[in-house]
Design goal:
This protein is 33% helix and 21% strand. The protein has 14 helices and 19 strands. The strands form 3 sheets. Strands 3, 4, 5, 6, 7, 16, 17, 18 and 19 form a 9-stranded mixed sheet that branches. α2 (133-149) packs across α14 (448-468). The protein starts with a strand and ends with a helix.
Length: 469
């Protein structure tokens, strides 16, 4: 039986699925009543626009109305707007994550780094086939709650455990219910045979049925890798068929990169401006040239890449791709594998990797790192016309970070402070599309206790099912 999506009287979507004897029972209704968009005036913040055409303001105002940025300036006049005191705070665009396996967020409880039996790949391969749609929904909501805590206002839900259409609907329902901006890349199930194609017919159904009048949801597809990797090698002819179906729908494609994958893709005409590769490691000079020539993009997950992948895939080649003019962005990858979704840590991990490789000979500035975390993430996901900078006319996705906290103060250079000192606990306010989803460090709609309780219950029962399997 398929899950049903029911629109509540508040305009939010709730997922109502039949009980699954093998898994947890669906929650009755977990949709939040999201705050109204309204009109706001953020007064007196240190505004970092991340727009090269608009100067930063050490003490500036931001006017927001109906979800859009109306004006940025000094002492703006907006008598009807609700005032938000920005004194002692840095205002900047919300962070844009470009690759995150949200379905396994709750598996953080079970993943043990790179342990042979209980590392990330063994656990996800073992438990992925046992995850119900309700398990996926609860895990995604846990990840989204942590995203908001970390100042992430846009997520790329890189969903590689879509075992049934109900799994897709469950994840999209979770994305819609929490108010974040999201790019959903429809993938395959962890138990799908390598010789079987992913369900592109259901991808077409999702593209048809999940229209989003508010523009908070965009769609793409995640595909498997045609070179050696822990999940196995997908045959190129299967991959070509998937590409054809996805491109016929006009959707972008994302894939994990491994050493040699660029050459295989290039030989088969599978690079392009519609392709995002993940993990900039192990590329040869000719491969980098082809990535640049085809307009293929890269998402870097530096916490994971430093923690796990350098031993098998080589050093993070951020600088090489930067010099080749390749579009890059930042991502969490998996908060089960990294154990958290701290986007400040993502910036710092790339900084540390870079300094280990180049010292001071090729500086990586704090402003460049913040650009990767904001406007470049928006460019990677095709959303730069809507978000990624504080620009009048764009949607109001932004965060306010306190400068008076003991781990931050005193702040002279806000870019330096954010990259070198800031933590999620310093984030005071998170706004997505003009809705305040966190204020004074507290959720305004999301029930944190419920999210944690449901995720804990799900992972406990999933672990029990695995022990019986």
């Amino acid at each position: 039986m398929r899950a049903r999506l029911i629109c509540s009287c508040h305009g939010q979507w709730a997922l109502h699925a039949p009980a699954d004897a093998a898994g947890v029972a669906p929650a009755r209704d977990t949709s939040e009543r999201l705050p109204a968009r309204g009109e706001y005036l953020i007064r007196g913040a240190h505004v970092l626009t991340m727009d090269d055409a608009i100067a930063d303001l050490p003490k500036g105002d931001i006017q927001i109305r109906d979800g859009a940025i109306v004006a940025i300036g000094d002492r703006l006049d907006a008598p009807a707007a609700e005032r938000i005191d920005g004194n002692g705070m840095i205002a900047l665009p919300g962070f844009v994550d470009t690759h995150w396996h949200l379905w396994n967020s709750a598996l953080r409880a079970l993943v043990r780094a790179d342990d042979k039996a209980d590392g990330y790949f063994p656990v996800t391969l073992r438990l992925g086939p046992l995850c119900t749609p309700e398990d996926a929904r609860r895990s995604v909501r846990l990840g989204l709650a942590e995203a908001l805590v970390s100042g992430i206002t846009t997520v790329h839900d890189w969903s590689h455990n879509i075992r049934t259409p109900d799994h897709a609907d469950a994840e999209i329902g979770a994305l819609r219910s929490t108010g974040l901006r999201a790019h959903f890349s429809y993938g395959w199930g962890q138990d799908l045979p390598l010789t079987a194609p992913m369900n592109t017919a259901d991808l077409a159904r999702v593209a048809r049925d999940w229209s989003d009048e508010n523009g908070l949801l965009s769609l793409g597809a995640a595909v498997r890798t045609p070179v050696a990797n822990p999940r196995g090698i997908v045959p190129v002819d299967i991959l070509r068929g998937e590409y054809d179906a996805i491109r016929a729908l006009g959707l972008p494609i994302t894939m994990h990169a491994r050493p040699g994958v660029v050459s295989v893709l290039d030989d088969n005409g599978l690079l392009g401006k519609d392709v995002q590769l993940v993990h900039p490691q192990g590329l040869s000079i000719p491969e980098r040239k082809r990535v640049a020539e085809t307009g293929t993009r890269f998402s870097c997950s530096p916490v994971i890449e430093m923690h796990y992948a350098q031993a098998t895939r080589g050093e993070i080649q951020f600088q090489e791709l930067e010099e080749d003019g390749i579009q890059q962005s930042l991502s969490v990858d998996s908060s089960a594998a990294s154990a958290n979704a701290d986007f400040f840590a993502c910036m710092r991990a790339l900084l540390w990797s870079h300094k280990q490789r180049f010292g001071t000979t090729k500086p990586l500035t704090p402003r460049r790192l913040l650009a990767l975390a904001t406007i470049d993430g928006a460019r990677d996901l095709g959303l730069a016309d809507k978000i990624g900078s504080l620009t009048p006319g764009k949607r109001a996705d932004l965060i306010l970070v306190r400068t008076g906290d003991v781990n931050m103060a005193p702040v002279i250079n806000p870019y330096f402070a954010l990259v070198y000192s800031a933590q999620p606990a310093n984030i005071d306010t998170v706004m997505v599309d003009g809705r305040i989803l966190r204020r004074k460090g507290e959720f305004t709609a999301l029930d944190q206790d419920q999210v944690v309780r449901e995720a804990t219950d799900s992972i406990t029962q999933l672990r029990a099912r695995a022990s019986r399997a």
